Amino acid sequence: MARVALVTGGQRGIGAAISEALQAAGRKVVASYAGNDQAAKAFTDRTGIPCYKFDVADFDACAEAVKRIEAEVGPIEILVNNAGITRDATMKRLTREMWDAVIDTNLGSCYNMCKLTWDGMTARKFGRIVNIGSINGQAGQYGQVNYAAAKSGIHGFTKALALEGARSQVTVNAIAPGYVDTEMVRAVPPDVLEKIIARIPVGRLGRAQDIARGVVFLTADDADFITGSTLSINGGQHMY
Ligand SMILES: NC(=O)c1ccc[n+]([C@@H]2O[C@H](COP(=O)([O-])OP(=O)(O)OC[C@H]3O[C@@H](n4cnc5c(N)ncnc54)[C@H](OP(=O)(O)O)[C@@H]3O)[C@@H](O)[C@H]2O)c1
């Protein structure tokens, strides 16, 4: 039986490439999203991958969704915490609301989704969790105190949870993407983007598929000795 993989934010951007790569690897994939019904419908029409709409920052909504997915599709054995947002501003303009939105969506969601799938994974003695961090959680970034804090938090979360899952064959890893060509990065002003690309040793932005191949690698059935690690996929921009 194909294992069920849930990719949050899995119907567009990096998440869509992850969903499709996991499907190609023989997984039964389910994607989640926040509100972009149009993208979700187009994605399902194209790939056959069902999309579930819920807010990953809302614990009760996650609980309801996990229950529904497990009843309709099967127990979640692979979880990719990919959903994320930016609300960039320097400290001078960074409101409490912007701080909370980014922390709750990017980091709180990892707690919500891991908490709700953890008992099942540990009881079944199999689980693969991949949390999508960021180069900016490793290196910091001007105007991204909230985002860098959330992503940096993901890297610590990953290592600590990996220790708890190790004896139950539940692996927990992170990927720290560099700059990838998605809507999130297309929102960066062109002159700033040009400067960013100039600093990437391979000389281009990442493709969503570059990240997806890392997820397929970390979630393979025989990847059970890889846990607590952070895979940097960034074109050589920043190495940890
Ligand atoms: N792009 C980059 O260069 C880059 C670099 C490093 C790390 N990352 C990380 O990689 C991940 C994906 O980034 P991306 O560039 O593909 O982003 P994106 O194109 O903006 O897509 C974000 C996805 O997350 C979903 N989402 C956002 N808030 C949500 C919420 N509250 N509940 C449920 N789903 C939610 C969105 O759903 P809707 O479509 O419904 O809005 C969408 O599917 C993020 O965690 C991001 O921080 C990206």
UniProtKB/TrEMBL annotation:
<dbReference type="InterPro" id="IPR011283">
    <property type="entry name" value="Acetoacetyl-CoA_reductase"/>
</dbReference>
<protein>
    <submittedName>
        <fullName>Acetoacetyl-CoA reductase</fullName>
        <ecNumber>1.1.1.36</ecNumber>
    </submittedName>
</protein>
<dbReference type="InterPro" id="IPR002347">
    <property type="entry name" value="SDR_fam"/>
</dbReference>
<dbReference type="InterPro" id="IPR036291">
    <property type="entry name" value="NAD(P)-bd_dom_sf"/>
</dbReference>
<dbReference type="GO" id="GO:0042619">
    <property type="term" value="P:poly-hydroxybutyrate biosynthetic process"/>
</dbReference>
<dbReference type="Pfam" id="PF13561">
    <property type="entry name" value="adh_short_C2"/>
</dbReference>
<dbReference type="GO" id="GO:0018454">
    <property type="term" value="F:acetoacetyl-CoA reductase activity"/>
</dbReference>
<dbReference type="GO" id="GO:0032787">
    <property type="term" value="P:monocarboxylic acid metabolic process"/>
</dbReference>
<keyword id="KW-0560">Oxidoreductase</keyword>
<dbReference type="InterPro" id="IPR057326">
    <property type="entry name" value="KR_dom"/>
</dbReference>
<comment type="similarity">
    <text>Belongs to the short-chain dehydrogenases/reductases (SDR) family.</text>
</comment>
<feature type="domain" description="Ketoreductase">
    <location>
        <begin position="3"/>
        <end position="183"/>
    </location>
</feature>
<dbReference type="InterPro" id="IPR020904">
    <property type="entry name" value="Sc_DH/Rdtase_CS"/>
</dbReference>
<dbReference type="InterPro" id="IPR050259">
    <property type="entry name" value="SDR"/>
</dbReference>
<dbReference type="GO" id="GO:0005737">
    <property type="term" value="C:cytoplasm"/>
</dbReference>
